[in-house]
Each structure stands twice: as C-alpha cells, then as structure tokens.
Structures
1.
Amino acid sequence: MTSATTPPTADPALAQRSIDTLRTLAIDGVQAANSGHPGMPMGCAPIAYVLFREVMRHDPADPAWPGRDRFVLSAGHGSMLLYASLHLSGYERPTIDDLRQFRQWGSVTPGHPESNDLAGVETTTGPLGQGFANGVGMALAAERLAAELDPEDVGIVPQRIYGIVSDGDLMEGISAEAASLAGHLQLGRVTYFYDDNKITIDGGTYKAFSEDVLARFDAYGWHTQRVEDGNDLDAIRAATEAAQADPRPSLIAVRTVIGYGSPAKAGTAGVHGAPLGEDEVAATKAAYGWDHEPFHVPSEVRHDFDARERGAEQRARWHAAVATHRSAHPELAAEFDRRVVRRELPDGWEEALPTLTGKDATRKHSGAVINALAPVLPELFGGSADLAASNNTDVEGGGDFSASDRRGRNVRFGIREHAMASMATGMALHGGVLPYVATFLIFTDYCRPAIRLASLMQEHVIYVMTHDSIGLGEDGPTHQPVEHLASLRAIPGLTVLRPADGHETVAAWRQAITHDGPSLLALTRQGLPDLGERPEAPMDKGGYVLRDVTPSGVDEATGPEVVLIGTGSEVQLCIEAAELLAADGIAARVVSMLAVETFLSQDQAYRDEVLPPTLGARVAVEAGVTFGWERIVGGRGRIVGIDHFGASAPAERIFEEFGITGQAVADAARASLSAQG
Ligand SMILES: Cc1ncc(C[n+]2csc(CCOP(=O)(O)OP(=O)(O)O)c2C)c(N)n1
Ligand SMILES: [Mg+2]
C-alpha cells in the first residue's frame, strides 16, 4: 500500500499563492452568498493544498476511479475549502461560476458538501462526527476487499482515506466509537488531520473541551502526531509521510488559526460561520498581499494545482496493477470487475434464496437468508453491535474480521451502534461490499443520524433490526420499540420492511438487496406462524391482498365489506379477526403491508385494487404507535396500536393487556363498519 506523492512545487512563493487562492475563493464564496463558513477554510487551506496537490492519488478526469484515495471533509461546514480544492485541481465541476453560486438554489455547491451533487465529494457531511465514522467504514471496506480479491497485494485496492476533522467532530461521541474500533482493528489506511484551532461556535474550546486529544487517540491505538504551525508545509508533509508509514490509523493535530489572515477576526469564533464583511475582506486580502477582483485565480496557481496530468499517471499505474492482477488471478479479477467496477450483483444469485416455511421468528428466518446468500454474495459484509446471536446476523463459519484476519466475514462492531451505522454508509460509499448492520430495533435511536444521512445519499445499506415490538416480552419498555416504526417511516428515502413470516422475510431481503438505497428490516424475537405458500410478486409492491375471508354461504363475488391491514407479527391477528368476522357473516380482506412506503409508491390503480376506495371500513393493526396509519385507513377507519410505552411481562400477556388481539381487531372492524355513512 504505497501512496504516490507528488514533489512540492519548487517555488515556495507559488505554493503560498495557491494556498491564498483557496483562502480567497472561500472568502469570496461566503461573501457572495452572504452566508457560510470562511474561518475553517482559511485556517486549513495549507492542509488541503498538501493533500490535493501532493499527497492524494486522484484524477479529476475520472473522479470515481475505484483506486483513488478518498477525501472526507468531516467538518462539512468548511465546504468552500473542498469546492475550491476540487476546482483548482481541475475537476470539470465546480467551475468558477459554480463557486459563485455557492449555497444557491440548484447549485452543485450547497451549504454543506452533498455527495450526490458533485463528483469528488465522497460523502455528505455537516452533522459533525459522521464523516469521521464514514471514513473508518471506507477503510474497513477497502481492507476486506484487498484481502479478499488481492491476496498478493498487487495494488488493485491501494486507496487510503484522508480527512479533515474539527473540534466538533472530536467532541461528538460517534468519533470516539469509530476511533476506538479503528484502533482496535488497526485500520491504518485512515489519516485524519485535526483542525486544532481551539475555537468552536460558542468561543474558545477551553470552555468545554480540555482533554488531551492525542493522548486519547494514543490510548485508542492510533498513531498520533502534532504539527505546531498550520502554515508549515514541510511539517505537514513530514507528518503525512510518517502517518503513511505507520500501520496504525493516524491523527495529526495541526495547530491552525481559524480565519487566518483576517486582522480583526482571526482566532475568534466570529469568523466561524459568517461572512467577513466587505471591509474585513479588503483588510484580509491586503494582509495576504492579494490585489485581485473576487474569485480571481492566478494562471500560475491553476498550473501549480492542476492534478490532471499526475492523476492520469496515477490512474494508469492502477490500471497496470489491475492488468497484472487479471493475468495472475482471472477469477478474482472478474469478481473485482463485477463488484467494484460494474457494481452489479452476480447472475442467478436469487436462485440461492431459500424457501422458509414453518413457525419461527422472522429474525431466525433472516439468519437463514443471510447464510443461504453468503456463498453466492461475497460482497454481503457486516455484523452486529454485540448482538449477533440475537440478531441472527453471523455468517456461520465465516470467521471474524480482525486486525490479523482481513478475510473474516463477520464484523464485531462492539457496542457502538452510532459508529456502526455510519461506518456502514462509508462501506457502501466505498463500494465493492454490500453492508448490513444490526442491533435491536429500539436502538435505531442510536443509529438514527447515520440512517438519515444514508437515506439522504441513497446509499445501499441494509439495517437488520430485531426484537421489533412488545413481542420481545420480559425485557420491558426500555427495550420495546413503540414509536420507532413510525419515526423510521418518516425518514424520506428509507424503506422499512416488516415481514410477517418466512416467505415475506425472503422477499424483504430480496428487495433490500436489489433496491439501490437503504432498507431497514424490522424482525421479531417471537415465533410467527407460516401464512402459507403464495406468489412472491405481490410482495414487491409493499402491500398486497393476503386473503379474502368469505363467510360460508356468501358468494365470493360479493367481495369484502371491511379491510384488515397488518404488518409483521400483527398480520396473524388480522387473519384471526377475519375468521371471527366470518363467523358473524362479515366478509373481510386481509392485507399484509410489508413496506408502507413501497405500497404508497405504487400507482393509484394498484392501490385501489388492494384497498378499494369504496371500502371505507378499514382497520390497521401494528404493535406500535398509531401515528401515520390514518394515511392508510382514512376517516372511517380504525387503528389498533399502542400509543404508550410497553411493559415487562411475557409477550402474550402484554398483547392481551394492551388490546393487540384478534378480538380487538374484529371489534375495531365492526366499529369501522358501523361508522360508515
Ligand atoms: C452534530 C452537530 N451538532 C452541531 C452542529 C452545528 N455546528 C456546526 S460547526 C459547529 C462547531 C464548530 O466548531 P469546530 O468543529 O471546531 O469548527 P470550527 O469553528 O473550528 O471551524 C457546530 C456546533 C453540527 N453541524 N453538527
Ligand atoms: Mg474548531
């Protein structure tokens, strides 16, 4: 794993002008937008210069080249630093006009970097700490991929992960989780520069942050260094080289000055997140010896910074390594091509999907799916936050991924849900692996910021969340999710799947694997009955008619009078209720709503077929808050749910006490029928 570095420019004055160009572009972008964060780019410009100009292997002509180094701006508020660096490196976008459009409607230069807007932005950042953990996930994916597909280290996975992290990033708990795991797993591809400027929004870090950060990272098993002067390019270069040479992940604390160069504002919180103002812009540019119109890029700076020629060479070297690898290991090369270059699933993988019958917990069915798919989908790579046996996520016989075994299939994330979820996003962004991560559904609260960002980015992550209701029983209300399904469904772009038996669990996994976005599986602890063989295709529509139950003596063609809609463990209650109703001569339809979002995205005709508009009598049942089900049941409908916390007792008793029963569903159906106009 070598990092080709480009020699520094021979003229230190030119390097200085390049750095000042980064600074002035950031100043001008923020000034033009009349909002944004100039201070961090002004302080960190030398770090970005050394990284983009000398250290990183990247090619502006092919920003997604798989062997490139990844740059993560964890302190996403410093977005103009990234945009200016990409521009000066020679990326097609952002253009100078794009920089002028900073933070404007429809621009590729939004307030915080968004990975889907602009090539070269490796991940969407802004919520502090997330980028830190994303980068650790990228390194994890790279390690596994290299061990799996490049056993002789020919160099087809040479990438390293560089990042800039701020005080805020290192105060956030998620970075502690991710750093702890990165140290434990010795993810030496990670090199983070800590923007040690001793300032946050509320003022000096002395107010709230006084630990010895490097001692903390030493204790995590990181290689740590200090650069005393953030403008000392040679010191930054030397620290980078030392970081590359060390097998541990690296943190380089660089003593910087926020708003460097601003006579009135440097070193103060005032320059963190507000334009300098015209007078101070002028004073700052004078201090740099900069006498140009806004957004000016001197031609010699363009030439100095331009990464295209060396990027093309670096990429050519990578292609040569890929060719060497291909002749030595054609099968591994084909696999690399499929997973990393084409990013496709293997032909025929679906044939490995099992048929799961019989009564069992959906978490167990899910474990069976994972193990059936593991041999045919080697990219499926993940694990649990210390609940593997409960979540049923282990690939049996797959071994553990560890510092000494990079081929291990199961990741032991430890009790670090937040970092786990964020690392999964990084793994997906990296490519070549299809990450799945697991914990109890209740602890999606600990994952939520990362799930939200994965949804914003539409990254392909599978969350396996078990123990999905009061049905987990004795552990009680601290462990029983109530509001979680509703709150997860409220996240745009996240598909929440709650299968009702083995057949639906298989369908849910198939959908999660084929859907190029995040999916969350909500699975039971308790056993659920097999609802019978049935075609799979309707399950893909999210909600479908499971059964129409017609009372004896009634013509089937008459159709149902009431629709009972359930998810997961409550679908069986709908069937029970339908039978009770049938005994009273009422025809009921049972709809299984495997994924509400997917159902709602179907065309009107299909939705009307499942839920005929003429049928106002409807009941939805789910062992969680009723919030959101109004959308499905409408004004005359009834909702059977739990709008309060759970309780500690055997599961059956809790369902009974809280009125989540077939009888309650049948009663609600009668109430809905009589409420009809
Ligand atoms: C999780 C999260 N909390 C709060 C914020 C709002 N915020 C943006 S930057 C920042 C802290 C600024 O301090 P630092 O990270 O040191 O950046 P600097 O001011 O040095 O650029 C805060 C609180 C955020 N972006 N993310
Ligand atoms: Mg700071």
2.
Amino acid sequence: MIVGVPKEIYPKERRVALVPAVIPTLKKAGMDVLVEAGAGIEAGYPDTEYVEKGARLTASRAELFQAADIVVQFLCHGANDKTGSADLALMRKGQAVVGFLRPLGTVKTLQEIADRGVTSFSVELMPRTTRAQSMDALSSMATICGYKAVVVAADTLPRMFPMLTTAAGTIAPARALIIGAGVAGLQAIATARRLGAVASAYDMRPAAKEQVQSLGGRFVELAIEAKDAQDARGYGRAQDESFYQKQRELLGKTVAESDVVITAAVIPGKKSPVLVTKEMVAKMAPGSVIVDLAAERGGNCELTKPDEIIVEHNVTIIGEFNLAATVPYHASSLYARNISAFLLHLVKEGKVQLDMNDEIIRETLVTRDGEVVSARVREFFGLPTAAAKV
Ligand SMILES: NC(=O)c1ccc[n+]([C@@H]2O[C@H](COP(=O)([O-])OP(=O)(O)OC[C@H]3O[C@@H](n4cnc5c(N)ncnc54)[C@H](O)[C@@H]3O)[C@@H](O)[C@H]2O)c1
C-alpha cells in the first residue's frame, strides 16, 4: 500500500498533507509513503527529514500519481479551483484520493474526479463525533485561522492590545469583538485575551455562551432567538433574512465600540450572512480592523472584498482567504495527524476497506465506481439517489 504526498499546487500554498513525524506510524500499519521532492520545504519540512523517517522521494509528480494507491492532499481538484484540474489527467482508476474537495461547491469537479475512476474522500464531510475528532481537519484549520486572525488584527491596529500603566500614562486595552463563536471564533477569543485585549463574542447558538465565558470572554446577549440554531451535525443553521436584519440592528452599537471585529459566522455550503453593514463600518473609530474569516463564502461584512485587504471609512477590512495556509508548519502538522488517523481507519490488512456501515467512511466517501455517491452531496445538489451500492 503506497501513500503518495504530492506538492501542493494552489498558488502560494505552502502546506503539505503529511509531515515526517507521522510516517513511522503509517509504516507500522503497512503503508509506504512516497513524497514528491520539495513537497514540505515551504512548510519547514525538508526532504531529508522525510527520508530519515522512512519515506521515499520522487522528483516526478506523474510517477507519484502512477505509484500511489492513496494520494493525500490539502487542496484537491475542486478545493483548488485555480490549478487543481491539472491533477485530473494524472489520477488513475482504482486510486483513492483524500483531502479537501469542496464537496458542496460544484458537482462538476466531483463528477470529473468520479470520471477518472477515483475513490475520493472529503475531509470537509467528516462527522462531528467523538470517534472522528482526531480526523477533524476543519477544526484543525479553524483553530489556526482563529489564532492568525487575531495576530493579523494586532499587527494592523494602530493601538496595542494590552492595558499598560507606564510613567507616560495609562493605555486602555483594545476591545475585540468576535462574531461567530465556533472553533475559529473560540480560538480568536483565547488569542485576543492572551494578548491582553478585552474580548467579547456573540453567536446565535445558545451553547456558545458558556464556551465564550470559559475562555474569559464576555458573551454579547442580543434580544433575539434563532430558530433551531444548531443542526444535528453541530453546525449553525441558516436563518431567514428578517433574523439577520434584526441581528444587524442589535449588533450595531457593539461593533461601533470595538477596535477589532473578527467575523467567523458561517453556514456550511451557504453564502455567509451579512452581519456588519457599511453603515456599521462607518461608525467604527478610525484605524479599527475587521478580519472577515467568512470572506471565501461572501463575507460577514458587506464591504469585504474577496481575498483582499481594503480600507473603507478608515477601517481596514481583511478578507484574505485561507489564513491557515499562512501558518504552514503547524497547519501541516495538525492536518497530517488528522489524515494519518483517517488512513489508519481506512486501511486494514493492507487494503482500503470501504465499510459502508462505518459512519466515518460512509460520510466522507464522495466518489466511487464513476459516480458521486455521497448522500449528503446528492441531497445538497438535488440529485437522485446514487446507483452505486453505498
Ligand atoms: N467533534 C465534535 O464534536 C466537534 C467538532 C468541531 C466542532 N464542534 C462544535 O461545533 C460547533 C460549531 O463549530 P464550527 O467552528 O465548525 O462552526 P462553523 O465554522 O460552521 O460556524 C461558525 C459559527 O458561526 C455561528 N453562526 C452562523 N451564523 C450565525 C449568525 N447569523 N449569527 C451568529 N453566529 C452565527 C455558528 O453558530 C458557529 O458557531 C462548535 O460548538 C464546536 O465546538 C464539535
């Protein structure tokens, strides 16, 4: 069983799907690891470290795809919407591919993978269960995004974060507001607090209140209640426009009083709700910063420009995508542990085991036998039930 690790090819992507530290565990389970030369160097993992841990190297991407029974990637075709299609021609029938596939993006890219005869698994579809926790790549990346959002905000803000008493006077602490207290939001609260800011947070899920408070954040209570705020998978549920309208009205004052606003309110597969309008931005103090972690799905701030940093009304609005990729060493190390836990689950006795009674396999499997077989994906796109035996 050969596991192939190609170099990531999305522009400026510096992460790598497996790091040297996980290779001995995979080898012990009967998996050989083949790495494209230079795949880890930009994340801080030179080729020599892979070889020391027992991996083999190849200079040829085509050879890697040819030899690998399972290809593990960060951004597969679909999630890599710029250059990912180049890998389609290299994929071969019977091969398995594991990584980010953006399964609720467009069904076309998934069908293209299916057409290659590839069995693909999407890490985005990992169930949120205790059993699958070690394989939860979305949480790993969200943790990093939450941390980095605060670091970027602190670097951009013309103020310091902590309260200081000096001979030259007292400096008041920065006020950070986090909207959407999921994994990224909670990490943002923790990081903002460590830097000395006063952190407040709001989430429409009532369960978030206790989590925010346990991190030393103040929970912003709004006189509005979401209907079924949380779905069975633990994700926020989309609300109607009148709910969002009311949220904006109630959040206005808190946003205006904040030096930093980090928005991380997303709904899987849906456009992100606009929670910070241009009028709200205009009321913020000059020099304030908004980091919009929902930018890739339209953004929580009305003025966010996709993948850009802009200044409007003297407020810097950061809409950069994929902040996790800017911390490639730890993003790769967490992802590698998620992926190796998944591989150890998937490969038994030297073979990929497609046990459809296993929730982890059933939920993450996207394509098989030339077809998009994921029930969740098919339902999302309104496709009839798959013909393949799942
Ligand atoms: N294995 C597990 O059990 C597991 C794994 C990961 C996350 N979780 C939990 O699931 C929850 C969601 O985590 P996530 O980071 O994946 O969420 P997410 O990235 O899908 O969404 C981020 C947050 O935005 C909030 N949100 C969406 N629309 C909003 C709106 N209009 N106003 C205010 N808030 C809004 C959501 O409630 C959510 O908390 C968290 O409680 C997390 O701890 C559990």
